[in-house]
Amino acid sequence: MPDWTQHFVFDVEADGPCPGLYNMISFGLVSVADPARSFFGEVAPAIDSPGIPRARAVSGISFDAQKAFAEPGSVMAAAVKWLDEITKGRRPVFWADNPAFDWQFWNWYCHKFTGGNPAGFSARRIGDLDAGRRNDPFNASNWKKQRITRHTHNPVDDARGNAEGLRWVLQQMGRMAS
Q1: Which of 28, 44, 71, 130 would give a disulfide with 143, using CB separation of 3.0 to 4.6 Å?
Q2: What is the sign of the dihedral through the CA atoms of 166, 172, 176 and 178?
Q3: What confidence score (pLDDT) does residue 145 get?
Q4: For residue 178, what pLDDT is reported?
Q5: DSSP readout, 138-158?
Q6: Phi, psi at residue 112, to the nearest 5°?
Q7: Is residue 146 very low, low, confident or very high in pLDDT (cuts 50, 70, 90)?
Q8: What dihedral do alpha carbons 35, 117, 24, 78 form, nearest 10°?
Q9: Which class is 7-172 in CATH?
Q10: Backbone Cα Rg of the chain
């Protein structure tokens, strides 16, 4: 069986569609090897913009409340340190429900506030792996039925549920023990 200790599911909550114009509010990282291991980061605004009200409402965090969060540099450095402790210096591999959205924030914040992204230049989409496994490229959401943790828009809850779904897909593929 592969060693899954360097694989993580992540989720981001943000107040708009892209970094640099909008703020990441929070993020969650969950170990695929052990979904009980997680990191929760809440970051103060990187830009002085309250974002899109509808997007901000998803997280339930007001712009004023976010201003009290820790500075992005310290939060991102702590997350990178947490990853390094688990991976023992190996490159982490990131998985997400929607990496096209989540990855851009994680990548931008890592580069801006820590000088680089320990996960490199890409992330993997859970739905694409499952769709390929089933030879059904137009159904990339079937795996979501395997989540145990409820989807709450708390990024750790959402990443944990997605890790549970990913683990199920990997078990179906014979790539992870049950």
Answers
A1: 130
A2: positive
A3: 97
A4: 82
A5: T---GGGGG--S---S-HHHH
A6: -65, -40
A7: very high
A8: 60
A9: alpha beta
A10: 16
User: What is the Cβ-side half-sphere exposure of residue 104, based on CA atoms within 13 angstroms?
Assistant: 12
Answer whether residue 66 shows pLDDT above 80: yes
**Which structure tokens are listed for 81?**
């340190």
Token reading at 32: 């695929």
**DSSP state at residue 23:** -
Give per-residue pLDDT as tens, 74-92: 999 999 999 999 999 999 9
Average pLDDT over residues 7-31: 98
Q: How far apart are CA 58 and CA 69, in angstroms?
A: 18
Report the distance separating Cα 118 and Cα 162, nearest Å: 21
Rounded CA separation 11/17 (Å): 14
Distant-in-sequence, close-in-space partners of 142: CB < 8 Å, separation ≥ 6: 127, 130, 131, 134, 136
Sequence-separated (6 or more) residues with CB below 8 Å from residue 108: 19, 20
Each residue of 72-100: b (16+ CB within 10 Å) or e? Answer: beebbeebbebbeebbeeeebbbbbbebe
The rounded mean pLDDT for the chain is 97
- Per-residue pLDDT, 2: 80
- Name residue, tokens 């320990």: 118
Q: Check if the beta carbon of residue 106 is closer than 8 Å to that of residue 117.
A: yes
User: Looking at the predicted structure, is the pLDDT value of residue 172 above 90?
Assistant: yes
